[in-house]
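Following up on my earlier message about zinc ion. Here are the inputs again, as you asked, copied directly from the submission form:
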Amino acid sequence: MDCPNCSGTLNEIENEGVTLDFCDDCKGLWFDRHEVADYFELSRDLPELDGVDRQLGPSRMSCPRCKTTMNQILYAPPNQLTLDRCETCGGMWFDRGEVPQLHRLSAQLEDPRSRFSGLTRNLKARGYQIVGFKGD
Ligand SMILES: [Zn+2]
Ligand SMILES: [Zn+2]
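Thanks, got it. Here's what our run produced:
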């Protein structure tokens, strides 16, 4: 798939049974519907909690699968996190820097057990330099 954020290509990465699509150019990450919940071992995808009524309007990006314009969603308390979601397929795009924010958020919401350290190890093993984890 083409990256919705830049001219790069999304590379599939298999990590602990979940396939993620990662852009090596802009370091963004694409999750198909339910992959966010699966990945972070949450019972549901985060923006379905109360993000639906926090639409910020159309995203500047198009869905890499459907090619339709995505919507920006504000997932606010306790963190400020703006996500781009495709209303057609339910996929979500995380810009560089948004994944660790979600990681912190998911740790606050449910089981602090997380696969995120596994993901970063996996990415580093493949030569990727993912987002900075200052303080983690
Ligand atoms: Zn990109
Ligand atoms: Zn879509």
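One observation from looking it over: The chain has one domain: 10-125. Hope that helps, and feel free to reply on this thread.
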